[in-house]
Amino acid sequence: MRLMECVWLRIMDIDFAQKRIHIRGKGDKRRCTILAPLVIPEWQVHGERVK
């Protein structure tokens, strides 16, 4: 992932069920990458705090 793609990342871009991150890139191009199992619990906790 590029730096600005990380900055623009939102919780709704993360699909915990399919373990994927949906990335919005330059020119409104979209792609997916794998969500590492190691970070899933941390991101779920963060997502609950943000809501």
UniProtKB/TrEMBL annotation:
Biological process annotations from GO: DNA integration; DNA recombination
GO MF terms held by the record: DNA binding
InterPro entries xrefs: DNA_brk_join_enz, Integrase-like_cat_sf
Keywords: DNA recombination
Keyword NADP on entry: no
Superkingdom of origin organism: Bacteria
Protein's name in the database: Tyr recombinase domain-containing protein
